[in-house]
Amino acid sequence: MMNEQPEIASLLPLPPATFHILIAVASQDLHGYAIIQEVRSRTDGKVRLGAGTLYRSIQRMLEQGLIVEVRDRPLPELDDQRRRYYRIAPFGTEVAKAETQRLAQIVEMARSRGFATETV
Amino acid sequence: MRDDDVMRQAARWFKMLLYLYPAAFRADYEREMRFIFADRRRDASGPFAIAALWLETLVDLLSSATLAHWDLLQQDLAYLWRTVLRTPGFAITAVVVTALGVGANTAVFSLADRVLLRPLPFADAEQLVKVWQKVPGYSRMETSALNYRDWQERSSSFDAIAAYHSTAMNLLGVGEPLRLKGTAVTAELFQLLATPPQQGRLFTADDSRDESSPVIVLSHALWQRELGGDPQIFGSTLRLDETTYTVIGVMPPEFSFPRRDVAFWLPRRFTEQDFADRNDNYLEVVARLAPGVTVQQASTEMAAIAAQLASEYPEDNRDTEAHVIPLRDELSRQSRLMLMALFGASACVLLIACTNLANLLVARALSRRKELTVRTAIGAGRERLVRQLLTESLALAFCGGALGFGVAALGVPLLARLVPTSLPIAEASALDWRVLIFSALVTLLTGIGFGVLPALRMSRGIDVSGLMEGPRAGLGGRRRRLRSALVTIEVAAAIVLLIMSGLLIRALLRVQAVDPGFRTANVLSLETPLPIARYSATAKRAQFYDHVLTKVRALPGVDNAGYISFLPLAMRGGIWPVGVPGAPEDEAPDTASLRFVTPGFFASLDIAVEAGRDVSNADTEETQMVAVVSRSFAERYWPGQEPLGRRFNFGFRERTVAGVVGDIRFRGLERTSEPQVYLPHQQVPDGAITYYMPKSLVLRTQGDPMALAPDIRRIVAAADPELPVANLRPLTDIVSAETATRQTQIHVLTAFAGLAMLLAGVGIYSLLSFGVSQRTSEIGLRMALGASRDSVTWMVLREGGAMATAGAAAGLAVAYLAGRAMEALLFGVRPGDIGTYAAAVGLVLLMTVAGCLVPAMRAARVSPTEALKAE
């Protein structure tokens, strides 16, 4: 049941898992377990996606057009034939940018109210 | 090797957990998820890491599976919402139909639950029983104080046994004098009912002693309504009639015993006089079975005790038996039958509502066949489609169920009149959690039962070939037969309901046509309850009657007035044994009703004095003891002979027949009454039979009887300022109260029947018009090939007629069986009453024609060229 592409604004704010997945697949096509590992290493082990959460997010993201399943596989030596790979879609990039901007605005606002963290 | 086993075992567990997800989700991601789990399981080393992995996995699966289901639900509901907006008629019909079915059932269930199912509101209520005497002609008779005492002493089946009788007194000193109904009880009663007072205390054995000061326990309603809920009431005093009582307790609001109109309870004190006559039967007996004793065992023991007493006191107790029945079964057979009939009727309504719903869903599914086929083609699994159809039918059913609960909330107060007064339960049935659960279950069954059917039917056999069918799609013979069968069921259920209510209406008309033996129009009735203590002297009462009757008769517009002990129909007891030398030796008991009357009573009610004379104020203790008897009395004892001047023993004395009057049905319109004997109000010794002193006044007027109310109150207040005027009402009220239950019952049943007809008509209409719209091209083709418009109209009418005929035939058979089952309610109307059946069939015929008309006309208007062009 493919839905029509929704408005960007209606997707924001993104659920944290969705944003993490977008970031993970931004630069390379990844399969599920690789996404989990990628997110985990990027966040120093703080964000640990479960398989259920991952695939429910992937299902929705596919429906929303944020990512696509890739048919052309990566280089054979890197490929795991059993697995399905995902890649960020152009719409996903736009949404990720919008989310980044939204977060940046909030951070900006917080700074101007004196919530700036002391630089270490 | 063992490691591999462990891994495989873990993988199996994980695979099972994946069943938490919707099937579509599983189909897409199961493989991937199992890989991931396998990888992580391999990476986890040590028992702690493995335990942590499982914990994490469980939490992850549970939460994401819930969310995945939620996603689908949202999708389906959003889809449903869009269809509802597009075709609101379908959704509204489905919701309303369900609401009516669920509402009718919930309302009737709340009534049946209260009256038939729920335990009575006492602790361990199933141990509570009534003990009745049985004498020839009377299966449930009160007992005497002497018999009660012997029962109590000799029985071992009971934990406790108590006696009570109803009483009524005037509450004085709190605003206007007020007539209150109460119950005099032995001290054991509250102990065996085991309901603690809301405040204060209950009776002890001490309170029943002669020398102890009078005490009273109040009902919550009396305390709240008349005494303003005064918390200082305990220990203070109330004046009732001539006695001052100390208030010792108030019962909780839900407590009522033995009936719900009881306002107070007094301890019953037995005096020597109570133990004088073994035939003075006025006590009802209630008991609590000892642990482990069954009703049957108790009944056997009581029968043995009654047999002992009969041989010890043959004079009084010959033919007197005793039997035990559960308190719950005090309900009359009629009440039980009536409730079951209502329940059956509401089930019929639900059945019709459900079949209608199923029909709607099938029709909609048929018209969506192409859409569903497309979705199957693009990969939606069958499970997904069934799920969506089910979600839709459940969502519609639940909207309908919620609305139906509202309908029930409105309907329940209307049914309150059907709660029999003979059970100690509250009149207002609340819609509580039991009813809510029932309602939810009915809704769920409706939604699933009648949603699954179309869902499975539609999803089966959906394949791409559906896309290739033209506009003729949706005419699958099997599906059409299913729909026709559903409509046939609706017609059958409708005809059953029509016939049931028709039979009951006939029965009501028969009851209403019964001549009570007196004329009710323009008669005002009221009670001036004379307190026994002050009015125990016959002369004192005579003075009062004379004063009131003289003043009342002088009022403009009053034709006549008279006093009697109890009004017919308002009081059905007061039956006394009759002693007539040479009375016929047959089954019929020698008993008659006893009433004291003043002159003018017969004239006021238009009861003909057929021979002899009315009682007179000249009939006193000094003159000959006389009686006026009813025709049936004269005919039983002196058939074909002159009754006047005959003597018989009645009410402790020998009396001479001075007059014969017409019979009245004082026992009720639906049963035969004992012969009646009327005694002059002054021919009774001072202080004797005081319960029967005339208290009810009737006036025949020329205009609206209620217009006289203020004058009457003034006259009574002038005669005795401490006397309340109670139950002031036109006599017609008392007679119409006789049929009130029947009328309510008929209103409900007729409403159900009307609803059923409407729904069945809608069913026929929607099936046929859907058929016509689906067959436009076929009809066009037929017409192009030479079929006339008439023959096309006929084709549609025939189809409707066939369904109606099949339904009617099945319905008539069921209706006859239902009629047989409720024959006891029919008051002599035969369960196979031809007129009723003909009327029901006629109505169904009309409904069928109405349902067919529009589709038939639409079929006849089909233009062959247009229809064929659409192909």
Can you describe what's shown?
The complex is a heterodimer of chains A (120) and B (871). Chain A has 120 residues and is mainly alpha-helical. Chain A has one domain (14-115): Arc Repressor Mutant, subunit A. Helices cover 53% and strands 8% of the residues of chain A. Chain A has five helices and three strands; from the N terminus they run ααβααββα. Chain A has a three-stranded antiparallel beta sheet with strand order 1-3-2. Chain A is globular, with a radius of gyration of 16 Å. Helix content of chain B is 52%, strand content 15%. In chain B, strands 14, 15, 16, 17, 18, 19 and 20 form a seven-stranded mixed beta sheet that branches. Chain B has a six-stranded mixed barrel with strand order 3-4-9-6-8-7. In chain B, strands 13-21-12-22 form a four-stranded antiparallel beta sheet. Chain B folds into four domains: 2-86, no CATH class; 137-318, no CATH class; 334-512 and 740-869, no CATH class; 530-723, no CATH class. Chain B has 871 residues and is α+β, with helices and mostly antiparallel strands. Chain B is built from 25 helices and 22 strands. Chain A binds chain B through residues 1, 31-33, 36, 48, 50-56, 58-60, 82-84, and chain B through 21, 25, 28-29, 31-33, 35-37, 39-40, 56-57, 59-61, 63-65, 67-68, 71, 75, 375, 380.
Total number of helices of chain B: 25
Task: Give the beta-strand count of chain B.
Answer: 22
> C-alpha Rg of chain B, in Å?
37 Å
Query: Kindly state the mean pLDDT of chain B as a whole number?
Result: 87
Query: What about the largest sheet of chain A?
Result: 3 strands, antiparallel
The proportion of residues in beta strands of chain B is 5-15%
Q: Which architecture name of chain A does CATH use?
A: Orthogonal Bundle
Return Rg of chain A in Å: 16 Å
Strand content of chain A: 5-15%
Q: What structural category arises from helix and sheet content of chain B?
A: alpha+beta
Identify the quaternary structure here. heterodimer
Low-confidence stretches of chain B: 463-475
Beta strands of chain A, count:
3
Number of domains of chain B: 4
